[in-house]
Structure formats: structure tokens, C-alpha cells
Amino acid sequence: MKFSLGGSLKLAFRPWVEGIENVPAEGPAILASNHLSFSDSFFLPAVLDRKVTFIAKSEYFTSPGVKGKLTAAFFKGVGQLPVDRSGARGAGEAAIKSGIEVLRRGELFGIYPEGTRSPDGRLYRGKPGGLARVALATGAPVIPVAMIDTEKVQPPGKVVPKMIRPGIRIGKPLDFTRYQGMEGDRFILRSVTDQVMYEIMKLSGQEYVDIYATAAKRQIADAAKAAEAKKKAEAEQAKKAAAE
Length: 244
Description:
Layout: H1 2-13, E1 16-18, E2 29-33, H2 40-46, E3 52-57, H3 59-62, H4 65-77, E4 80-83, H5 91-104, E5 108-111, E6 123-124, H6 128-138, E7 142-148, H7 150-153, E8 167-170, H8 186-204, E9 208-209, H9 213-243
Parallel strand pairs: 1-8, 2-5, 2-7, 3-4, 3-5, 6-9
Antiparallel strand pairs: 7-8
Coiled coil: 216-244
Domain Phospholipid/glycerol acyltransferase: 29-150
Protein name: 1-acyl-sn-glycerol-3-phosphate acyltransferase
């Protein structure tokens, strides 16, 4: 299914790729990418000859009914790995464990250091827990990846994609084996993550924002609520003024 979907995506959207030679033909490696769209996890594997395993929430694999079964089959076919987020520490520990297992099998593991999709196309601070801990626990090289214009193909909330040609830039592998055994040091984790994010920024050309994307989403949601409340208050005032 991966090759069928990949061929269809390449034929329909004709994604351009730079630096594909930086992905090793064999052996473990971590593909650390910016995250602009739901479709990122499909376009990147589509342009590679090797399977890439990403983490996906377990709900995609357990939904009931025919639609649920089709969704589960689709995500399994494109190399998505279910992670149960119900534990005390959420998906974090499960994702780290799953990533280590994938790499120890000599495969490619895909991860989004921002932790969630960018709410506005900018690049946000990487979360140090997942990417850095997996890299230091396995010694696998980290390959920075920049997805280009995928948010224009399928903007958040849109089901039908637009026929826009996206791009993918793949950087040179980063070696962090000098820090192996130090995954308990939060300063090392932060340093490793920041170095990867800097390389992604150079590849993508995105504006960098030194806060987490989750915090930015909360700020945007709060601003939208405040604007809506202000609009309602002004409407009420106008209504009262008209009545007088």
C-alpha cells in the first residue's frame, strides 16, 4: 500500500526533493521534520525508497465501523505506528519506546520535534523529550527535513487537498553519538534539540518562534475568544444605543 499511495501522490502532486542522497540506503536514522500539514507524514515517505515509521494517536486505529477500519488500514499501510496517550505521561514515553524499537530494527523513524502542526506556518521551539532522547539512546543519526508548502496542499480543517506542488529539503545527517548515555541531562537534550531545529530553520526558511507550538495555539485560541467576546459586547452596546 505504501508504494501504491506513494506513486499516486508523486503522480498527482509532483513533489520536488532536494538532498535525497542524505538519507542512507540502509541502517537506522531519524528524520526530524517541521510540521505544516496532516499530509507531511505521507509526502515524505512517498519520495523515499525506504519505509518511514511515524507515530500516530491510537484513536486512528481503534475507531468503530467501516470508516474506522478503513482509516486503520490506511494508517498501517503508510507506516504509522499507534501510540496510546492514556498513560500518566501521555504519548511521550510510549513514543520514545516505539522510536527506539524502530531504530533498533535498522529502520527509519520519523518525528516532528515541534510536537504538533504549526498554527501559522512559522517554526516553533522543539520539544527536547522525544527527539533527543531517542537519538541519544540509539546513536542513530538525525536527518533534518523541511516540508515546503504542504500547508497549502491541505490546510488544517480542509478535507479535499488543493493541487499545489509541495517540496521537501533533506539536510545532512547530524551525529550526536558524543552525547550517548547522557539522555538524562536536560541541558544536553535542549542543546541537541535546538541544533536540529536550527538546521530545519535553515532548510525551510521559516521564521523561528522561541515558544512551543502548543502554547502558540492556546494564545491564538484565547485571542479569538477575546475578539469574539469584544464583538458581542459591541453588538450589545449598539443594540442598547439604538433602543434609546
